[in-house]
Amino acid sequence: MQSLYSNGFEKIYDSMYQTFINYKDEYLFYSTILKKYTKNNVLEIGSGTGNLAKHFIDNNFNYQGLDYSQDMVNLSSLKLPKGHFMHGDMRHFKLEKSVDSTIITGRSTSYLLSNKDVSNTLQAIHINLNNNGILCFDFIDANRFFKIIKGGKHLYHAASFNNKHYSRDSYLNTNTSNNFMFDWHSKYFQIKQNKKILIADDKSEVRAFTKNEWELLLHLNNFKVLKFIDKPAYMFDCYAVVAQKIA
Ligand SMILES: C[S@@+](CC[C@H](N)C(=O)[O-])C[C@H]1O[C@@H](n2cnc3c(N)ncnc32)[C@H](O)[C@@H]1O
């Protein structure tokens, strides 16, 4: 699962995703929600290479990042020496001090393949959140996305960053063997002198969710849903959910 996030690929991820995702807009999205609930300290789960962290740190949020890939953590710490990045698993983590808000970003919820994974994550977040703390995260909306990829769909993305040119050929198909899973086969290429050089070939099984699933999973794990927000992303139909810890 982590091949796309480690062993050197984290550097390519870092470049490519800065062309796929507008991290300034992501920051505006999350910070507007956190400010509304007067939350100034935040834990980002799935902090990746720190592209979103930079904006939180520059804007004086008390920020911590957590990621499962040690290579992602190392790269974000190198890029942002003022940042506090931890290696950990969202399903089982314990902070030294609880936080006022937690965000799970970049559709990292897609890696919570079982309902047990989801419950473990929500319980860990609950323990590490202050009373009335805010949880906000995005997820791929199975209801819309599965209608697009049903029967299989090819998608192509090009990315140019710092004079390096990359492309990604994806093939996606539904796989409902266990929850609303989908298979994502992606081939990553670097383009040099008009030649496509294969740099990674990844086959992952990831998960989309419906709003109803999250409503129930959050309720069962002592979070109150405040709202769902339609949040389309560069490739996926997504929602974000804002929830509050209840005792
Ligand atoms: C699609 S990337 C998103 C990274 C970043 N949020 C961004 O937008 O660029 C998903 C991230 O989730 C992390 N991840 C996957 N499973 C995780 C887990 N169980 N606990 C913490 N992080 C996890 C991966 O290592 C990866 O950095």
From TrEMBL:
<dbReference type="Pfam" id="PF13649">
    <property type="entry name" value="Methyltransf_25"/>
</dbReference>
<feature type="domain" description="Methyltransferase">
    <location>
        <begin position="42"/>
        <end position="133"/>
    </location>
</feature>
<protein>
    <submittedName>
        <fullName>Methyltransferase domain-containing protein</fullName>
    </submittedName>
</protein>
<dbReference type="GO" id="GO:0032259">
    <property type="term" value="P:methylation"/>
</dbReference>
<keyword id="KW-0808">Transferase</keyword>
<dbReference type="InterPro" id="IPR041698">
    <property type="entry name" value="Methyltransf_25"/>
</dbReference>
<dbReference type="GO" id="GO:0008168">
    <property type="term" value="F:methyltransferase activity"/>
</dbReference>
<keyword id="KW-0489">Methyltransferase</keyword>
<dbReference type="InterPro" id="IPR029063">
    <property type="entry name" value="SAM-dependent_MTases_sf"/>
</dbReference>
